[in-house]
């Protein structure tokens, strides 16, 4: 449907822009604890390639440690926001044999809530707090949701990247 972010088989997820965190993933429907939320195939980089190229780019902020190197989660996998250990609502499992990362709800998650993983204790960025809740004031444009103080132009500029 027009205006919806559609992900085959998992169309309850959407991108939102958080005032401090930037883009993140939220759910439009309730998710029960244990629900498989998303599966991301990965793009693999060996140690040498990543050391020479990847770590000097924005990719460095979105990769996962992987056997033999690093992996970039495709789909929404690299867009989950971070919460410190014990505060995340989504866990992930690396399936190295199949080249996938599987994301699962660690607790019941309400509609509108931001989906957050724990990136570990030694993160390289300032941790923004306050995951989005379902009560956030939002405006939407073709499935891109701006929250709080964000302007509609933010959503429109993001849409240009998606050729919507």
From TrEMBL:
UniProt xrefs under Gene3D superfamilies? SET domain (2.170.270.10)
Family matches, as InterPro entries: SET_dom (IPR001214), SET_dom_sf (IPR046341)
Which Pfam families does the record cross-reference, listed alphabetically? SET
Instruction: Write down the superkingdom of origin.
Output: Eukaryota
Give start and end of each SET domain: 11-120
Q: What is this protein's record name?
A: SET domain-containing protein
Upper classification of the organism: Eukaryota, Fungi, Fungi incertae sedis, Zoopagomycota, Kickxellomycotina
């Amino acid at each position: 449907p027009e205006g919806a972010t559609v992900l085959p088989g998992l169309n309850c997820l959407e991108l939102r822009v958080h005032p401090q965190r930037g883009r993140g993933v939220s759910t439009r429907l309730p998710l029960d604890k244990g629900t498989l939320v998303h599966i991301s195939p990965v793009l693999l980089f060996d140690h040498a390639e990543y050391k020479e190229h990847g770590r000097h780019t924005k990719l460095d902020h979105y990769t996962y440690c992987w056997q033999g190197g690093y992996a970039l989660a495709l789909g929404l996998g690299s867009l989950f926001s971070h919460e410190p250990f014990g505060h995340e609502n989504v866990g992930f499992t690396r399936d190295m044999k199949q080249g996938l990362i599987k994301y699962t709800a660690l607790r019941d998650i309400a509609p509108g809530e931001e989906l957050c993983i724990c990136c570990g204790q030694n993160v390289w960025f300032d941790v923004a707090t306050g995951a989005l809740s379902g009560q956030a004031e939002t405006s939407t444009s073709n499935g891109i949701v701006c929250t709080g103080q964000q302007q509609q132009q933010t959503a429109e500029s993001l849409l240009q990247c998606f050729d919507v």
